[in-house]
Amino acid sequence: MDLQRKRECFPDAWYLHIVRGGEAVTRSLMRAPWLSDRSRAACSRMWSETVEATRQSLGDHPRYREVSYEQLRIDPVQVVGEL
């Protein structure tokens, strides 16, 4: 909902979505003390739903770009060059 509102307010903005791999995020979330359900299933679902919601809100925007965090770490020059 916030992303949809931002898209409406800032139609000429660029959106860079850096997506970290689901397993790494899941493991990280499982250690998050602010989550009430830190089970693997709940944390994995949170990652999936968040990434999918972003893609649904912005994926068709001409100024939306998605970058793999892992690929960015491996070869930042190439990834940034492609942007």
Topology:
Layout: H1 2-9, E1 15-19, H2 22-29, H3 40-58, E2 64-68, H4 69-74, H5 76-82
Helix pairs in contact: 2-3
Structural class: alpha+beta
Q: Runs with pLDDT <50, length 5+? A: none
Number of strands: 2
Write the H/E string, N to C.
HEHHEHH
> How many angstroms separate the termini?
26 Å
Helix content: 55-70%
Question: What fraction of the residues are assigned to beta strands by DSSP?
Answer: 5-15%
Quaternary organization? single chain
Radius of gyration: 15 Å
Q: Total domains, how many?
A: 1
Question: Biggest sheet, open or closed, and with what strands and sense?
Answer: 2 strands, parallel
Mean pLDDT, all residues: 95
Please give the count of helices: 5
Task: Note the overall shape.
Answer: flat
Strand order of the largest sheet: 1-2
